[in-house]
Please model this.
Amino acid sequence: MNTTLDRAAVDVLLANWTGAYTVPSRALYPHQWSWDSAFVAIGLRHVSARRAQRELESLFGAQWADGRVPHIVFDPAAAPEGYFPGPDFWRSTDHPASPAVATSGLVQPPVHALAAWLTFRADPAQARCRGFLPRLYPRLVAWHRYLATRRGVDDLVAIVHPWESGMDNSPAWDDALCRVEPTPTHGFRRRDLHHVQAAERPTDTDYGRYVRLAGDYRDSGYADRLADAQFVLLDPMVNALYAASESALADIAAEIGADPRPHREAAERTGTALVARLFADGFCHAYDVHERRLDRQRTVAGLTPLVVADLPVAPALVKSALGDHFRLGRTALPPSYDLTGPAFDPDRYWRGPGWFNTTWLVWHGLTQHGELDHAGRLRDATLTAARQAGFREYLHPFTGEGRGATDFSWTAAVVLDLLRTAP
Model:
């Protein structure tokens, strides 16, 4: 059974490979996405370590001069009408810091250094022969420097748009988004609804707010003036991945003969600040910088700080994962949002469905903290969900029915990683 699932996962990754990177989905997402490519590399390393290296190298080839890694790198051969907002909306090539290729101006969670280190470990000899880490390391350092300086808030990293969290439609953003006047629906064209039912996607009102924030950020010249931005939040997953990736950068630095101490110190500072600022009532929450308060909605992002090594509140997070809000091991996949929460919707994008990539992060975190029994059960449930639903974008958390895009790359990638690395 696992052989069949393994082969099917490989087939999805090969089918979505473009020659330089892997698209998330041929129909709905026809370009390169930042954190998607990081998860793809984590799975692809088991099939071809060289191709996994190329996945990350391709993404960082579109890095801006200021260090940011854009959340979308556009394929010039793709139909312009195939995705909105497209290159004409972002107008990135008008910016002096942008690369020659068209990109967005937003970012996504910084899981890339962790992915790079895992990719290296898959075939160290080949990676050394290609100079993979020495070439990628300065780009990773510049990426983290951008986050720390341009987005830094008291040793944590801020996001200026829900899309930057990766969890675009999370209820954790609802209060902050209420301050944003949405762009009228006649001001944009939604391409996602051509491929997925409206009941599974953000509402037009929420999408109008996303477009407004993105347009305002573009019109500011992507300036990162946090005091002027309408939406500035500290997300627990973004910061957990920043800390975990700083730890990975320490390992990378040691491998190539650089000094690992600055990265270890940065990881420790971020982990400490994450607990001090975002942890309350046994859980990690988003923090609204302008309002100076925690948003008490519980989302799966609040469990992902388990990826941070030596996290002192890890036992409390495990307890929260097992409790009634997430019911770890009692759902098809851990839900993206609190099962008891007022905004829970088992079908709608990031408001309840389970996702394979966040499940992988929770699994990885459990293994980091020695919770091997819980990690093993989560692995088994994830593989069962993939067998039953296929490689869907997300799942109904109770029935396990597939939702969103089909043949989704990061789903195949993390399933492959679970198959190849866990007993």
Q: What stands out?
A: The longest strand covers residues 156-159.
